[in-house]
Design brief:
It contains 24 helices and no strands. The protein has about 600 residues and is an all-alpha fold. The two termini are about 45 Å apart.
Length: about 600
Amino acid sequence: MAHSGRCADFRITCAKVLRLIQSLTRKKPLVPEGEESKFCRCLTTLDLVGLGVGSTLGASVYVLSGEVAREVAGPSIIISFLVAAVASVFAGLCYAEFGARVPKTGSAYLYSYVTVGEVWAFVSGWNLLLSYVIRTSSVAKAWTGAFDDLIHNVIAETLREHTPMDSPGLAPYPDFLAAGLIMLLTGILAYGVKESVIVNTGFTAVNVTVLAFIIISGFIKGDINNWRISEETILNATRDMKNLTLSQNEAVDFGVGGFFPFGLESTFTGAATCFYAFVGFDSIATTGEEVQNPQKAIPLGIMASLLICFLAYFGVSAALTLMMPYYLLDSHSPLPVAFEYVGWEPAKYVVAVGSLCALSTSLLGMMFPMPRVLFAMARDGLFFKPLCYMSPRQSPVFATLSSGAVAAFMVLIFDLKGLVDMSSIGTIFAYCLVAMCVLILRYKEDSGFIHGLEPFSVMGLLRPPSRPTQRTSKNVNTVTIIILFLVIVLSVLLSEALHSLRRRELWSVLLICVLVLTLVFAVVIIWRQPQSTTKAAFMVPCLPVIPVLSVFINTYLMVQLGGEIWISYAVWMAVGLIIYFCYGIRHSVQKQRLQEARTHLNIVPMNFDVAA
């Protein structure tokens, strides 16, 4: 009896574990029954391009070029931006396909929900919220800093004197101007989507005009000889700089001159930094229920905004390195210093206006998608239900006000310097997950095609059937997990064993070759599987290569982040999972739909028997 009782308890425990796993992996249908959109479809393709450019083309275009050119890449920074843009396009293509297939609010959160299941959807949404909140607060802080510079730091000195906060982890002083700016833009966003997009488009137009002026001026006043500076000139400049900074013990290294003064390897290192400059286009993907023709407008908006941003970054970095030698560039204010160098000192005021407009559009672009992700999670029951309330003007007003208040509180209280890198994890994680979701969705079995799960066989991997089945779909899912594991190991090795690879040590070279060959073989296996016949207005080309490249690039970037950042990120994720398991898993709307469907299936046969 005791043995049979233990067996019964074991079976009950297994059943509970199975039900938990099923609940974590339940997927949301593409067209949920009873879910009606309350958003106003008022946005055009041009609005999306303005939103994407405004979100992506922030203050980094005025600062990043000088920093990377002076210390990392030299004139070859234009190649760095080209490589970074290509890498960003891989992620952009994956977002574009999902935008065409799933034209709903939620971005990567929703894409994960319909593809890999509920718990991954919540993790993706929680990551996006982390990214948007920190980036919103940090951009607001940068805006007030740029404005304060124009008035000789009066605001900072006054607040530091009268309201100091000298505690670890806290800001030096509460930035009331940044908090007020966030709440002002929150009010505009809560009022209506069309009004906020009009404001964003206006600031973006000014920003692009200023950048065009900078590029044209740079090519007029530029000197091609600044791209082929001799090694002797660099040695003299290095010697002079060492004499100036001898008391500070600063290391000075300006390379060897020419177009690649720090070598080709440093150009690719610069590309990794420049990649973050293209973060922001994903805000377009959150507008799925507010666009007039989302299947076409979202892919076009993403690709057009990435192209415009690349041309701007490419042009500004080229103009900057043509106007003055790269080793003389200022890391903090490169453009004003460059215009002073060529004798156009008044142009720095034009740069200041453009910088403030860029920060304004970047801030609005960061704030725009945040309430929409929050709204989508609340509508699905995974987050607190009142946040999905819609105003009479068809705006997610509670989600907008709540997210704006959190960002304003953070900019008032916390020191954001240590948190900015953590926000990158949220965005890069979403890019990686969306790329994997594209693979899973494109190789999913066709709906309506009934075919049992065939047993696994090696020949089935190499010679699959002509149509996708449950077996081929499961094969792709399994190989995708293997690819993710290989990519993680390869990224860690490339990061940690770089010195061994440079010395061509046998163990490191052999291990890297084995991992790369295994990864290529896994990609070939997926390529051999039949794709779903379901078509979309836009589809990622060169499958499965582009999604796998996107996963590799984003995983490698995440591996580069430091240990302290990962500890902070782990704390954030622990808080999110507590919310999900205490609230989201119990109030899930998809859980209620499945329960109602099971109840309906149990009732219908009984009624049929009575009628018979």
